[in-house]
Every structure is written in structure tokens, then in C-alpha cells.
## 1
Amino acid sequence: MAEAFSLIHSDRSCLGEQSVSSQSGNRSVRVAEKERRKNEAEDSFVLALKYFTDVEAGTPVTGNDDFENHLVQVEKVAYSRGLAPEAIATMLEFAMSSRMGNGPCVRVLKCLLPASVVPQDCVVRAVAWLCVGKIPVNTKVLFVKWVLTVFDMIEAKDQLRAVYGFIFSFVTEETLVRVWHGYNCLCFVVLVRVFRVRKLLELQSKLGRQPFLLHLLSLYKVFCPELVTLSVPSRMRSGFKNHVNPWKSALIGVQKRNGLQVASGISLTVASKEKTNSRKRKLCHLELPAMNSVVNNEAKTEQSYSLKVVPLVQINSFAQLLENMHRIELPAQMGSLLSSSLALQYLDCVQDESALLRLNFWLGHAFQEEFLFSGDGGACQNSEETLQFLNRLLCAQNFLQEGFYSSETFLYKFLTLWDGSLFRPQILGLLSNIPVIPSSQIERLVFEPLKQLYFTSSLFFKCGLLECMTNMLLRWLTWHSVYALEDDLDISLNSHTSINMTLSGFKDSVMELIHFVGHLACVGLRLEGCHSLLLSFTLDFYETVCDTFLKYGLPLLVMPPPGVFYPAFLATETVSVDRLAFIMHRYKINLASAKSQEKLTEQAFHISRQTISEFNHYVVVMVNCLWNSKMFHTGPGVQLREELLVKSNVPQYWKRFDLIHHHAFMSYAFDFHNQVCGKKSHPWHHSKPWGWYVEYLFTMGFDGLKQFVQTLISPQLPAGITQNQNQQT
Amino acid sequence: MSLLKPFSKLPNINTASILLVESEEHLQQSLADVLVEESSITVNVRLAKSLPLPKENDKDRPRIDLVVFIINLSSEQSFISAEASLKYLDPGYFLGKVCFMVTSARSAAVPTERMDAVRKLAASLHSPLLFAEHQTSEGVAAAAERLLGILKVSAGVVPMTTALYLSNLTRCTLPTDIEQPSFD
């Protein structure tokens, strides 16, 4: 109560300013005046509450000026600052007891805006009044809606759980049941009983498949999948609207005005982890709820220990978690798990299907209602909160090293509506976490929408998407190397689901992904004029691709398309050529080891001729151009007639792309020439200076090139260099 | 009936012209403000509520390189008007010089049938379908950036590619219905 009064104080102070006078002599008078008004306001509010406590049953409403004045007083306070717990209790008691008939009941309920918390006792008492049966149905509905709105502000819920049976009995009343669906908070696992499910099913057969019933059933199904065997249809969005609510906007206003004071008020009563967050729980569904839902005082703790259940919120260290692993009680609001690393540890260790199901349900709901189809058509006035939510989710997924099922389904839907810039880093992060998709679905779900976005978006989106795809591939390959079973037949896609995929199915998906990115990179490089940033991201991707066999044990090797190879090889930056050389070197090692395994064991995978011939072609082109100065010499690649080349008037056109004349290395050649040969013009294309030059390039840090030369041109260095060089005409 | 033709006039050097057609004029103006700030080429922005364009301005109208239909999904009228305007375009435009931009696609109030109808329309005309977050300035800037990318290609400013080639890559496809999350 005291808190409410202090708030009124500050409200009144601005009225005091109306007497505009700057003379200092008036000041003390003004202060006194303010003081007096404040006391008056306090008094009238206290009087009002006293009136509602003491008013006798049967007092008439019409023409009762006292009643009218007092109610106006209470409403004023409620809408400006919210009501203190005691005031809530008094007013709720007054309304539900119908001492002055049912008329004022609705009006009182509408102004019950809590400033901090709602005492549990008064809610339980109100439920008791509800059972008396004097109250008309629409008032009952209003009361239930109110409880739903302020549910998170009720200070403790243990007794409320005890009377859940009564509340449930109202389900039979058809009008009431329509608001019932939102009662997910009350559905604690222990409360799902066979008889309740049976009752619901009975009701459903009587009323037909009503969306609100299905909702409740689906909730039960989430909590206790084995009890509800009914199949719930997947499309249920129209089931209820959470945001249409008479209190919500007023409550937002009250809480905004109260600001931090409310948060501190809550933190006194509940052991909330994030104090500033807790006050907004009901206002913004994307906000992660604090893990406060269950027990929070000493007496309760004793009791729950005797029940051999430990609420997750009471566990503060990893050691405690290990001790109580077998008797953890999950919080009522599963979203709170995301914000606690201990809870995530628990999720990771315990293969608890129902916990994940509930978390996914919460997430799916949060995505669907608040983000994907936000009521205002996407005005992101709460973008800061959404950003935090997505970042937290990403953190949790990175911690668990896997994506949540519901974020995956959300993405498939969202990608088709995305503008390519809204929360781009977060969406791409979530996207890179999705588990392996069967190759029959992957095109439709992911590739098609991404393709449309990629080709119409900026260079930075293109780079971001390629990076995301690289991460996705990495994740898939890591999954394969961790979860592939001994017999190399089945891999479990996800540690928590039982979906299995055959090795060939997995290979198909990975191949689809690699080909898709190859296509993106190819056309993207062309559209962006072989931009070096895009090229760099493309090479990142192929650095993973070239090592699939040795590093991740996946019997699959895919060569880059010419549209990637040539831009990288003919790039003006030395680093791209160097990285390409490294990639070719890794391909060589992978292919060689796959070949040798093929000889050793029969069941090792067969590398297609196509792959090998592609690889050979690329190597021949590289070696001929860089090393042997025999560009356009042989091979199935670019063929130009001799006379055409002569006509081009390029002197020694066959040397244009060797290590000296290649535009990426030209500056190094100049540098080397100045350092070593000085002013004298040596014919340094001869073996000795060539060896020195190659050595010089290696010392400049071109390790990729070095490895390329060592594996693909000459195993011994630098003696071998001269040999190769001698073959040159 | 006067058709708007893509090749009836000569292009100007380093210039691209874009026509934004939107019946409700919500996004048009803000989009135009961002578009004209492009510095690498001169961008002419023309605004229209619907097609056909008035005959009297025909002389000083530049060659239109890209026609963008902006459809606000929350209004039926917006879609009907865009659909009606389409027939005043020369078929040559549908070789990569038309795109659809949809706003309010994430709104809960939008019936799924309307979204499907827009998708069908874009897919049947082999045109890209872009989505825009028109309520934030970042969203408008991002939408303008994407339009510029397409505009540059269709105006022939980007070497190695053509409008037809790009639209072949970006055109809208009809997705088969994506299942909502089921609780099984």
C-alpha cells in the first residue's frame, strides 16, 4: 500500500505547478499546498478502499453517490499507477462477492491493474466465489481473462494449482471454454490426468471439433504425449487471439509509467533471475520469461524436497545439477530455459522428449504469434526485444550445437516472406543451424526462396548467404562424423529425434547443397564482376568441400564448377590464386587416399570418372599456365586456333599466365628481379633463377602454392623444379 | 488502348528509369526518395497510381526500364488495381522488366488466399516477387537497394548479364503448401 501512496505523491506534484509564480516566497506555501493535496488524495483513496471493504450486502447502486465517487477514485489510481496488492485483494473480493449486485462487477474487474503483484489468496478466493454460481457467465469469462492477463504477476501459484480441478470443471460451460485455451500456464505436468483428457474428448464429440478444445488437447499432448492419442491438425492458428484483451494496453501504460519500481517490487517477492526482464513478461511474448514460476519461499522448498522434486530455479551450480539430475522439475514457462546455461546443460544431458517438446511449443508460438504474423503487419516497434530474443536463441542453439525443431519450421515459412534485410545476421545464423533436410525437400523448402533472395540482393547479402551455407555444410559434416554409426548405414539426424537417414540419403543432401552453392557462386561472381569479397567467401566454402573425405569421413568429392575455378585462377589478388592452389592440393590428397582405400577394401566408395577427369583438367590447366608456360596448349578446355592467337599480337602469349607474368604475381616478379638481378638483365627464366624465384614466392607466405607445387608438380623441392623446368620448350 | 513499350525509345547514357505503380501511394514516395540518391548512375523515378499512363506526357517520358507493381497485401483493392494495370504493358516487358513488390506480408490480417493469388500472378508472368518491410526506414532502404540491383541489369548497365537472364534466376515459383508446425 505504501508503494502506491508514494506513487500518487509524484503524480500530484505536477498539478501543484499550475500556480505559476517564480517568487521564492511562494515556494514554501506551494510545498505545503502540495503536501496537503497529496494527503487528501491518499485519504480519499484509503477511504475508497475502506468503503469497498465495509460496504454491506444489498446496498443499492443506482443513485449511490458515495459508491460512484469512491469507484472513480479507485479507477483514477488504477489507470495512472496501478493498484497495490492489498487494493487488488479488496477490489477483487468486492467484485466477486457481488455484494452490490452484478452491475459494478464488470467495471471493477476492468480497472484491476496491478502495480506490482497479485496476491495468490485473493485469486483463490475469487475462484471460490466463482463456484458459488451467482455470477453471470460473461462476468466469469471476464474474470478468467483477467487471471490469464495477470497470471505472471500472481506471486505464487501452488494453491492455485490445487484448485485447478475446480477451474477445469468450468470447461463444460461452453462459453467459458472459449477463453480456456490460453490456460497453458496452468497445465502442469502433474495435472494432466486421464479423466480430464477423457472429459475433453467427450466434450469434443458433443460439440464437434472446436478449435479451442483442440488447443487444450494439443497442450495436453505436449505435456503428456502418451495420454492423448488423438491426432491434432497442424493448422490451428485461428484457435485464439492472445492480444485482444481489455487490460493489455492499460497494463502496458501502467507498467511503463511505474518503470523500475515495479521490477524491484517483483524481485522482492520472487526469485527472478533477470529482474528488469520480468516486468515485461506478459507484454511482449518474445521476451524470455524469467524462471520464477514455481516455488519461492522456504516452506515450499521443504515440501517439494519431500516430494523428491527440485525446481530448476533452485539449482545454482553444475554440481547441484548433477546431484538432482533425476528429480528436476521443469519451470512452467519453458522459454525461461533458454536464458539459463544450467537449464541448457540439463536439456543436453537428459534426453527428455517432453521438455524439448514443450520448449518447441513455446518457441513455435512465440515465432508465429509475435514475429511472423505480428498483428501490426510488421512494424518493428519492439525490434530491440526481438533482436535480443533471436540472439539468445542463437546462443542457446550454439550451446546445444543443434537447432530447435520449431525454429526450423519457422524459417521455412519465413524465408518465403523475407525481405532479405530484416534481422539478417540472426536469420542467417538460425538458417545455418538447421539439420540435414532430405534431398527431396531441400529444393522446395530452402533453395527456392534463397535463390530468389540471393540474385536480387546486394553483394553483402550474397557474401552473408555463402558464409551461412558454409556453416551449414560444416555443421552437417560434423554431425555426420559424430553420429555416423559403425556400420556406416544409418545416421541419426538429431540427438533428440529418432529420424534416421541412410548414408546415401545424407550424401544426396550434401551433394545438393554443394551444387546449389556452386550455382550461386558461379552466377553471383558473374553478376558482381568477380568481386574479390564474394570470391573469398566462395573459396571459404570450397575449402570445406575439398576435405569432405579425409576430414569428415564422408565418401563424397565434388569439384567446383568452371565458373568458380576460372575466376579464382585468373583473379588479380594473389591470395585467391594461392587459396585455389591450396584447395587443389587438398583435392589431390583426398582423391589419392580415396583411391588407395578403394584398392584396399572393396566397399570403399567409387569415385566417378567425371570427378577425376574434372580434377585432372583443372590441374593440367593450372600447371600448364603457371609452371610450364603452355597456355592453350592441350586439353579439353579453352581451345583457340594458333593463327587467332598470333593475330592478337600479344608477345609470347603462351607465357601470359605463368608465375612471372600472371597479373597476380607480376609485382612479386618485379620485386624479385630488383632484389636478385639488380640492373643486370639475367635470362632468369632458366632453371636456376626460376628455382630461386619460386623459393622467393614461398618465403612470401604462399603456402597454398607451395603445397600445390609439392604435391602436384614435384615431390622434392627445389631440386625437382629444375627437372620440370627442363621439359619446357 | 496505349501500351507502354520497352523498346520504343532510345536509352540515355548511364541512365535508368523506373516506374513505380502503387494504387495507395504508401511506399511509392519514400522508395523514390531513396532511389534517386543512387550515385553510380542517374536514376529517373516515375510514379503512377495505375496504368495506362496519360497520353499527354508521352513525349517527355523517358524509356522505362523497369516497372514495379507495389501491392499492399492488407488491401484487396491494391491487388485488383495492379492486376488491371498489367494489360497496359507491352509483352516485351515480361522478359525481365517487371517485378512485383509486396508489403505487409507478415501481417496477421492478410488472408492466405490473397498471398497465394499474388504468388500465382507473379509466377504466371515469370516475374520476381520481392517482399518489403515498408514501415521502417531500414526496410525501405533495403527494398530500394534490391530494386536498384534489378534496375541496373534491366537498363543494361551491368556487363555480362541481361534482364531476361536475371529474371530467369529470380522469377517467382509456386511453392507447394508448407506445413505448419505440427505437435506430433
## 2
Amino acid sequence: MPARLRSAFRILIVDTEHTGRAALAERLLRRSLAAHGVDAFQIRVTSAGLDAIDGARIDPVAAELITRHGGNADGFAARSLSAPMVAATDMLLTGTEAERDALVRRYPRAARRTFTMGELQHLYRAVVELSAPLREHPLILANRRGRTPVSPDWELPAWDGPGAHADAVGRLLDESCEDAAEIWSALVGPSGSAATPPSSGLTLDVFGTRLAVACTGERGDDLAREMHRVWSRCLVSEDSEESVPVEVHVGGEPEAVAAARARGALAFPDILQALHHFSAAATVRGIDRGAGSLVMLHAAGIASRDGDVIGFVAPSGTGKTTLARVLGAHYGYVTDETLAVSGDRVIPYPKPLSVITESHQGIKLQWSPDSLDLARPTGDLRLTRLVLLDRRPDAPTTPVLEDVPHLRGLAELTEQTSYMARLPRKLNSLSDTVDHVGGLTRLSYREAVDVLPLMPELLGER
Amino acid sequence: MTEPTPAPLAEDAVVVAVHEDAVERDGEMLVLVGSEVVLLSAVATALVGHAHEPADVSTLATLLVEEFGAPPSGDPFAAVCTLAGELVARGVLEQR
């Protein structure tokens, strides 16, 4: 099954703080599109804030409104709007003219792609028939706006906590998202994932190791569909004789689960557990195959636009995924857990991220980096920096960077290296990697968002 | 839980370095023992360097005193017996 590479029509909803209206609009539009059979491979809806604090949580009022209108508020985290986000977007939407104008002042080239949601509704209603591909709509609508200035019927009311204003925002967005989904769903091709499973199997690239995954059991097709979605960036089209076979079995009678386990399959009662445990299983199989040839660090990897990768090294459960998500909104997401290095070359492993979700009693669910709209690294990736993370609540409010003496740092790094003793020159191989990146740095910080302003310095850009 | 303090070795105990791999930098050494690493001080690094061939602790103590001088207080031989005991306990040295 080849990975689908056609690009989605990208919509970015923008407000100021990205914890209320834009979050609400994002989730309601996703809801409406899904209800119309449109998946994220066809139209991808994301959001951001002009003055957002990266990683901020959703306003509980917005979360309640999303749920009330049949959407899903899980896994949301605010992010600040950036030039690459704007550049990668086909259509930008705001709730108010003031936010539209602020966005256009900051990114003038986006003017003809940026509309208020009221304006969009008005423009579509004014155009009797718009039989053009969706990608051409922004320009057509902008031209029409240019010829006949429009006076939209509505703007989103101010966001000021629970009450009549918030309810009105919910109702307006609910209607406009439904309207937009109805228009757009007729224009995109058939969904690839909603109706039929792409295949009951898939091939994944785990830093060079090919895993040939067979999804079996009563819910095997559903699992395959979910696997394609959350592992979207690790899918590869070609299988090979070298592929490591993995069977993942879901559902059915306990006897069937037991039989699957007896023949060596990973077997689970439900899809959530299968996705959760498969992530670790896939990583471990890649690590087993990479032993002796790759330096494999317990580290998140984040890349600059030039392909320079910073490895943020830390034990499991100490904030790598959160950091990868916050930084990945603005820099290339390489991985959140296992950074594989060959010489100075980094082998990306953009696996799903485990994110705690509100609607599942705090259970961690697997999220595709595409669903979280993390940036894609481009070109060849080179390791240029290794940072030992020291995240603690009593760290200085402004993150502190300090050089770590070579052997002391190497001792710490060894504990976060898989199969170090199988490397050709053991400790010396790891020592060479550290020397290559100019030594180790320790980063003491409290919150992931505090690290964002340090990125230019860490990348040697200033 | 604190680890028990290893017993000092006798001065006539014979030891030899057995670590699998090491990186030296600025007079200190990081050694690999099994799947663990041990960071050695400058004195411990010198001791392990002198114990590539089996040697008794008093000979090693003499060499270390020549190299680093006597410690400011206490018996240098007793100090080396304690250090060698710790290195044996960590698997960096083996007692023959």
C-alpha cells in the first residue's frame, strides 16, 4: 500500500490568544468536515494565535462548547502564529475584522488568502456557482471582495468567559462550519480513509528498519485505518525482504487473542491499547536492529530549516514529548523519543506523540504529528547539538544553558544511549559524537515554552 | 538506600584493571564495566593505569605518592587500600 502523498487543502484559523475562539472553530470545522466524509488528507484544519503562548491549555469554556456541539477537544495546545505556518496555508480565517487586519499587517502576502469567517460565508453566498477546484477558491473569493467590498452579516462577539457571548460564538461557528463543510465536501475527491480501510497491513520506517505490520483480528481493519493515520509520517510504500514482520491483533474472543499471542502476535482487547503498546514495540524493534551500527539516544530531535538537528536528551517521562510538540510547531519534528545517529547524519523517526487527553480520563493517546500540525524537517539532517535536559519546577524562570565537562556529560549520556556497549568503539564512539557537536550543554528549565526563545541560540543562529 | 561501603584491601592484595573500554580526558577517565560507566578521579585514573598488569596495592600506593604526593592528612597507604577496595567493588579492578 503506497503512502498517500497528495497534499491536503490547508486551512488555518487565527485569533489572538489561541485558547478560545480559534480552538473552538478548529474543532467544530474538523467535526463538520468529518461528518461530511472529508478527512484530514483532503482538508487539514489547524489554528494558531497572533499573540499565543505556546503550549497554553484550551479555555474550559471553549472545551465545553466544543463538546456541546459534538466536537472533540482532546489534545489541544496553543501555538503562536509563524511565517512558515502562514506560508504553508491555503486559506486563513479569523473571527473578526480586527484580527484579519492584524494578521495581514504582519503577513502582507497572505492578504488574498485571509478572510473573516463572516466574510467567507457572505462571499460564498454571493457566488451562485463556484465550480472551481477548492485550491482556487481563495483567489476567486478575494477578487470578488476586491470588486465589491462586502459587509459581512456577523463578527464573532468578544470572548469573555462563560455566558451569552460564548454561547453566541458557539452557535455562529457551528453554523458557519456546517455551511463551509457542505460547500467544500462536494469539491474534494473521495475520502481515502473514511469508508474502506487502505489495507490491513502497512510498512513503517523506524530509523532505517522496515516493519511490515499486519493488522489482524475482529477489528484489524479499524486498527489498520488508525495506524495509517497516526503513523502517517513513518509510512513507506515499499516492503522488502529485510522487513521485520509484526502482527498486531485486536478484538475477538479471549481464545482468539490467546491464539494470536501464542503465534507471536501483539494482541490487545481494543484499538487504544494496541496503538499505545505498538508504539513502544515498534521503537524497540528498530533499536534492536540498529544495535551496533547506530548511536541511539533517548532524545527528542528538532531540526532547523537547514537540517541542523538538536538532540534534547532526557529519560522517559521527563518532558521530551511536550518539548517536541511545542518546538515542533515552529521547527522540524524529527522524533520525540529515540534519536538515531549514523556518523553525523540523523535518521528521522517522526513517530506518533503520546498526548494526555481530557476525554479519556488522562489516558495517553497516540497523535500523528500531522494531526498536531508539527513542522516537517526538510532535506538531509545533521546532528549539530546535544542538550541534556534538566526540567524541574524550581529551575530558574529564565532557562539556563551551561557547558558540561566532557566525561561527566558522557557518563550521563551513556545512561540515555541504547546498546552503547555494542557500538564499534563503545564509549569512544559516543565520545566522538559528543566531540562532533562541540560538547554537551545542560539546559535547566521549567516549561517547554520557555525553551522556544532559546532556539536561535541553540542553533547557532545568533 | 545507601550502598554499603566496600572493605579496604590489604596492602599485599594484588589487583588488575579489567574494564572493557575507557575514555580519558584531562587526566580523568570514564570506564565501561558491563553496561555501566564509572567516572574516575585523577588519582583513581592513575591507579587503574598502573594496574594494567597485576600489581600489589602497596606498590600502587608508592607510585601514586610519587606522582601526587602524600594526602594532606592520614596514611597514604590506607587511602589507596580504600580506593582500591572501591574500584574492586565497582568492577574496575579485579583482585587476584
